[in-house]
Amino acid sequence: MTVINTNTAASVTANAMKSNVRGMEQTMERLSTGKRINSASDDAAGLGIETRMTSQVRGLQQASRNANDGIAMLQTADGAASEMNNMLQRMRELAVQAQTGTLGTVDIANLNQEFAALATEIDRIADDTTFNNKNILQSSQTINIAVGADQSDLIAVDMVDFNLAAGVAGSKETFTHTAINNAFVAAMNPSADDVQLTDHFGNQITLAQADVTAATTAAGLATLINDASGTFRLTASGSDSGGLVLTSDATGPGTQAATFTYTGTGTPALTEVAGVAGTPMGADLSNFKFAGTTDDVDTSGVLAKIDSAIKGIATARSGFGATINRLEYTVDNLNTTILNTQAAKSQIVDADYAAETTELARTQIISQASTAMLSQANQAAQSVLALLK
Predict the structure, then answer these.
(1) Phi, psi torsion values for 144, nearest 5 degrees
(2) Which residues of 230-253 are buried (b: 16+ CB within 10 A; e: fewer)?
(3) Whether pLDDT at 267 is above 60
(4) What's the whole-model pTM score?
(5) Contact between residue 225 and residue 247 where contact means Cβ atoms under 8 Å apart
(6) What is the rounded CA–CA span in Å between residue 208 and residue 197?
(7) What local confidence, expressed as pLDDT, does residue 83 receive?
(8) pLDDT grade, residue 327 (50/70/90)?
(9) Are strands 195-198 and 259-261 parallel, antiparallel or unpaired?
(10) SS3 call for 236
């Protein structure tokens, strides 16, 4: 049947053209971006998988950088420890030289001067060796290296205190005073001189008069101490029955007792009741002098302590080396996992250029054919006018 009002052939052809144009636009988008999935409508499930894989890959890439940072940190620590070992070897050489009977008092004093300077330099290196502004040899600490995409993927790196005069191995020191209970704290009325505490290393903090007055309990006073600004190597706890207890951070035996200075009602003093701390490498050489100088000390004792310190450094460096090797293998494994995950992600997301160029050629041919057929369909309706002549 020949009609004029409804050109079915043209409508069908136009719809086919629209569908083909959408397909051609999608193909051109894939070719221009290189991705098969450019929006959620392209592949909803594939987009979800790609998002999770992207999170995993980026997490693993950062983990690889973290592991490399850990390697660099340990190499920094090992380099400093190597120099310390060299200085200890020289100190041992000086100690052996000081034992000979051919040296006079002046000669031994000169040896001791170099010995003391080297001991001071070892402590300076321990105090000043940092990585990314973080001191890594000053105290015993555990540094966690994130080596995976998840929160639990950690490698713990145990660092030791390399100060000759500080302690690492051993129990924590505790200073306590049972008299500083709730009633005592509540009754405290500091004068203009605020409450001052000094730890066993001589570090001092000051508690403001108004804060002490507001503390009211032993636990409140302990919180005030822990929140105080400044260096203080004692952690406070308090209760009505046990009073105020200060516990060391286990980085050394210190050189003095902890004190609690309070000007006002009563003047309590903290006394050491427990605590035997060791030394980091089994040696405390800071106060040693050779025989024949002031505060004579048998050089054989010095040799034993130096040997212990050298052994301790060797043990620490072995730990550094083992962890460096572990982290290097971790980096290799992370890079392999990243590569495989990216390959799997590529199969889902990336466009197949061979298939897409073939599809583009097909849709272009169809588009040209559809245009021609639409023209033919439109002309067929006009041919009906010939019947009216």
Answers:
(1) -90, 130
(2) eebbbebbbeeeebbbbbbbbbbb
(3) no
(4) 0.57
(5) no
(6) 12
(7) 95
(8) very high
(9) antiparallel
(10) strand
